Amino acid sequence: MTLQILNGARVWLCDAEGPRLSTGRDATDIIGDAYGADVAVIALPASRLADEVFDLSTRLAGEFVQKFVNYGVPLAIVGDVSAHLAASTALRDFARESNRGRHLWFVEDLDALAARL
User: Fold this and answer.
1) Of 2, 71, 91, 109, which one is least surrounded by beta carbons within 10 A?
2) DSSP 7
3) Chain-centroid distance, C-alpha 41
4) Is 11 exposed, middle or buried (0-12, 13-18, 19+ CB in 10 A)?
């Protein structure tokens, strides 16, 4: 994990390599790693999320994202999630609504994240 400045904002970039993430515990581990770094957002590569997270019926996405909301740390899922979006109307709606808010964003790349900041 590294700290990077994007468009003047401090962003905690999670490594692209590593275990697949899916639980609330995984989320709190990431938040704990960034604790004290005074970040504006945590950027997590979409490839790090277990496929089950993208199936909203498992409720894993809600549990995972809720930890970030509870701790007041915005989360950006960075990368191509188009296959998951194409497979689920509910996920498309969730992503669209999330992108309108302040807590969770789905972005294609770091340039798109920088533009949001």
Assistant:
1) 2
2) T
3) 9
4) buried
3-38 pLDDT, tens per residue?
999 999 999 999 999 999 999 999 999 999 999 899
Q: Which CATH number fits domain 2-116: 3.30.1760, 3.30.420, 2.40.50, 3.30.750?
A: 3.30.750
The tokens for 103 are 């807590």
Gap between the Cα atoms of 9 and 52, Å rounded: 31
- pTM over 0.90? The answer is yes
User: How many angstroms separate the first and last alpha carbons of the chain?
Assistant: 19
pLDDT (tens digit per residue) in 42-61: 999 999 999 999 999 999 99
